[in-house]
Design brief:
The protein is built from eleven helices and nine strands. By secondary structure, it is α/β, with parallel strands linked by helices. The strands form two sheets. It has a five-stranded parallel beta sheet with strand order 4-3-1-2-9, with helices on both faces. It has a four-stranded parallel beta sheet with strand order 6-5-7-8.
């Protein structure tokens, strides 16, 4: 039975959604959360859209078995590939998704915007429609990042490999932007894994480039959705955050807890 005391479900293809969870739990301190990470099948960004839908539906069933009152799809790829069909299939539960914060970057006045995301996210029609919408307001540079989410799944021990990978990944695009006589002023972290290595990305794009995730806007929207359904928890209590994983090992659960508490610090 779902009521105000029911937890909020947060789902990601792996550890990335824990970055979103950290923001949501801070913004909604009275609410309990259950995080499900499909780390056994991570990453999603190089799978087909149909496969992503099947995996996401399974994750939703895991969260529904815990009587969650809302589900946040903290995965840009799964949001793009699966959210509309999930809303039709489960009309009794509010679904919220994260997507690349291109609008937020454009609305802030940025003119030369890098969008880092998975290959699947950048290939779907939803993203192309978004870019088309803003083509007269900003220069948008999509950059597929194969393997980056996979490296982040390995945890803080992979920082050196991630540093090398990001440097090699960004170099051609940064050279292209410079060759066009422009300078980046915004970078959208279009996968929830990427905020864990925001410091590495910032170091390579430069200190004057503002990074965007859209997590705070998602938190405000979640609050409104729960309030509209009279599902916001009213009383103060000690927040509980639980973790579930398809890769159900003590090491994976320990990584989830570490990332939630400390981020990508070793």
């Amino acid at each position: 039975m779902v009521d105000q005391q029911s937890p909020i479900g947060v789902f990601d293809s792996g550890v990335g959604g824990i970055s979103t969870l950290r923001t949501l739990s801070a913004m909604l301190p009275r609410e309990d959360f259950i995080f499900y990470g499909d780390s056994a099948n991570a990453p999603y960004g190089e799978k087909t859209a149909d496969r992503v839908y099947d995996l996401t539906q399974h994750a939703v069933e895991q969260l529904r078995s815990r009587d969650v009152k809302a589900i946040v799809i903290a995965c840009n790829t799964a949001t793009s590939a699966a959210k509309p069909e999930l809303m039709k299939r489960y009309p009794d539960i509010p679904f919220l998704g994260i997507e690349p914060a291109v609008k937020l970057a454009v609305d802030s006045g940025k003119k030369n915007i890098l969008v880092l995301a998975t290959p699947l996210t950048l290939s779907l029609a939803k993203f192309h429609t978004q870019v088309k919408r803003f083509e007269n307001q900003a220069h948008i540079y999509p950059l597929p990042c194969p393997r980056l989410a996979e490296l982040i799944e390995r945890g803080p021990a992979a920082r050196d490999d991630i540093e090398e990978y990001v440097a090699q990944l960004l170099a051609p695009t940064l050279a292209r932007v410079s060759g066009e006589g422009r300078a980046l002023d915004g970078a959208v972290l279009g996968c929830t894994h990427y905020p864990f290595v925001a410091d590495i990305i910032q170091r390579h794009v430069g200190p004057d480039v503002e990074l965007f995730t859209g997590f705070e806007g998602l938190g405000r929207y979640l609050t409104r959705q729960l309030a509209d359904r009279n599902l916001l928890r009213a009383e103060e209590h000690a927040q509980n955050v639980a973790f579930m994983s398809s890769k159900n090992t003590p090491e994976e659960k320990a990584l989830y807890r570490h990332l939630f508490q400390y981020g990508f610090a070793q």
